[in-house]
Design brief:
The protein has 15 helices and 16 strands. It is α+β, with helices and mostly antiparallel strands and 429 residues long. The strands form five sheets. Strands 2-3-5-4-6 form a five-stranded mixed beta sheet. Strand 2 and strand 3 form a beta hairpin. Helix 1 runs antiparallel to helix 2 and helix 1 crosses helix 5.
Length: 429
């Protein structure tokens, strides 16, 4: 029977909440790795790639679905997977219970239920984020149009003279130059080299990518932290390119005396945007490659993939329980398999396959089969208490036909026909 649309919505909301928790967990683990092992390394290209991959992993891993067999996996990893998936093992939002509140009398029902308020709040946040993104991109387009007469194409970028209306910054292949500032030729050359590095290394694509993620995950503070880290790496990489073969001391002096101006254009890459002291300290560091630190994220990423993208194949088994003889008190001896009840049960368990169409939402399901044991010890008049699928019914019938004969029940020294019920439990764990 088809579920009510509200229940379907609530179940989707539950899946979404679990996804967001898993995504935030990936972000947090990868951030801690970066903070303690990579942030102070001078492998700027690697750090940039790491941050972008970390964002991609956090968004995509919880959506991936693979399976693995716990029987072929070491117990440590099975335990780790079980702990990591503890959040999703039980529903955070009980759809049936939450739905029951939506059908209460109007006098008892609040204006907005908690989950309705949550949806409204999220949609409002996304709408505001999209609006801000659209407005700021439009601002750039308007500035470019307004300054089109002061724009010159230079090799692979457009140079826009701002006449003091905006600070020097770059955005995609546009370099906005504040030509009202007084710099020496060397200083001008270094600042332009810095901004051209942002353009050549396509840093604006990174910023736009994380801005889009911020629209969707506006409530997650880690997204804002990742943006700051990306901007930090961008500045380090641009500083290294701008210095080139020149003296770092002269560049440091220029950086210190640069006036910080933003004017609200937060998506651009500014020469003086990030903390000056950090940039100065990074320039002084001696470049060295620590391969241990660079390779350290690999096992952690593999572990996150295993925990959040793989689901254990449930163990499916058939269990034959003790049979019951109808009107057993009327017999002097109850019927029993000639090979013994344990051997008979074991044979059936090994020859009856778990039904493919068993209820996937239930961990256990039970089937009761009934049959007569006639006076010759053969089984006949088989019946099922419920439909379990044609293939499974055939497997049960085939297993019973191949199983051992029974010793018939006896009464007053004579073999008589008896009726037997056998519960079969299909277990999934």
């Amino acid at each position: 029977m088809k579920q009510h649309p509200t229940i379907e919505l609530l179940e989707s909301l539950n899946i979404t909440v679990i996804y967001l928790i898993e995504s935030a967990t990936c972000l947090a683990v990868l951030y801690l790795l970066y903070h303690f092992f990579l942030r102070n390394e001078k492998s700027f290209n690697y750090n940039r790639a790491y941050l972008l991959v970390a964002l991609f992993i956090s968004v995509s891993f919880p959506m991936m679905e693979f399976t693995y067999n716990p029987a072929n996996t070491p117990g440590f990893f099975n335990s780790l997977h079980q702990i990591g998936n503890g959040v999703g093992s039980e529903p955070i939002i009980e759809a049936e219970r939450a739905y029951s509140y939506t059908i209460t009398a109007k006098s008892e029902r609040p204006f907005l239920l908690w989950w309705e308020a949550l949806l409204v709040l999220y949609v409002a946040g996304v709408s505001i984020g999209l609006l801000k993104l659209f407005i700021r991109i439009r601002e750039f387009k308007e500035v470019i149009w307004y300054k089109r007469h002061n724009t010159r194409f230079k090799k692979n970028f457009f140079l826009v003279n701002t006449e003091g209306m905006m600070p020097t910054f770059s955005f995609f292949n546009y370099l906005f130059w504040d030509n009202s500032q007084e710099y020496t030729e060397l200083e001008k050359e270094q600042i332009l080299a810095h901004e051209k590095a942002h353009i050549d290394q396509k840093h604006s694509y990174d910023i736009l990518f994380i801005e889009i993620l911020k629209v969707v995950f506006w409530f997650n503070p880690l997204m804002y932290l990742y943006k700051r880290l990306l901007e930090e790496v961008h500045e380090y990489a641009a500083d290294r390119t701008a210095i080139g073969k020149n003296s770092p001391a002269l560049y440091s002096q220029l950086l210190v005396k640069t006036v910080f101006k933003k004017m609200g254009l937060e998506y651009g890459s500014y020469f003086g945007k990030n903390k000056t002291l950090k940039r100065l300290n990074m320039m002084k560091k001696v470049a060295s490659t620590n391969y241990f630190k660079l390779l350290l994220p690999v096992p952690f990423i593999a572990l996150l993939l295993f925990i959040f993208s793989f689901d254990a194949i449930p163990e499916e088994r058939v269990e034959i329980q003790d049979y019951v003889v109808q009107s057993a008190e009327n017999f002097h001896r109850a019927p029993e398999p000639t090979d013994g009840i344990d051997n008979w049960k074991s044979f059936l368990e090994n020859n009856i396959a778990y039904p493919k169409d068993a209820n996937s939402t239930a961990s256990d399901s039970e089937l009761i089969i009934s049959f007569n044991v006639n006076r010759a010890g053969y089984l006949e008049s088989l019946s099922f208490n419920q439909e379990i699928g044609l293939e499974t019914e055939r497997a049960v019938i085939d297993a019973l036909q191949k199983s051992s004969r029974w010793k018939p029940a006896s009464k007053d020294g004579q073999s008589v026909t008896s009726r037997v019920e056998v519960p079969i439990v299909f277990k999934k764990s």
